[in-house]
Amino acid sequence: LTCDPVGGLVQIPCIERNTMGALKAINAARLAKRGDGNHIISLDKVILTMHKTGQDMMHQYKETSLGGLAVNLPEC
User: Fold this and answer.
1) Which of 4, 25, 63, 67 has the most CB atoms around its CB within 10 Å?
2) Mapping DSSP to helix (H, G, I), strand (E, B) and coil, where does residue 9 land?
């Protein structure tokens, strides 16, 4: 997921996503607490995968105002 700054502000597209992200985090915590501690994929492998995913993302989509909605917003 990208967080495109619109008019230089990352708040516009991110507030709603952060709300949904918080709800997902709460649900994930609840699921984790119900488990028995045995996992198919280790936390370390998940973290490594997410790190590699971040490295693979193009720079212009990392809150730089150089890509996504930031460059495609129609003039008001």
Assistant:
1) 4
2) strand
Q: Which residues contact 68 (CB under 8 A, 6 or more apart)?
A: 2, 4, 60, 61
At 57-66, the pLDDT tens digits run 888 777 777 7
* Angle subtended at Cα 22 by Cα 17 and Cα 24, rounded to the nearest 5 degrees: 95
Give the bridge partners for 6, in sequence order.
9
- Per-residue pLDDT for 46 more than 90? yes
Cα angle 65, 71, 76 (rounded to 5 degrees) comes to 110
- Distances in whole angstroms, Cα of residue 74 to Cα of each of 2, 7, 22, 69, 71: 19, 11, 30, 9, 9
Q: Which of 76, 60, 74, 56 is nearest to 4 (CA)?
A: 60
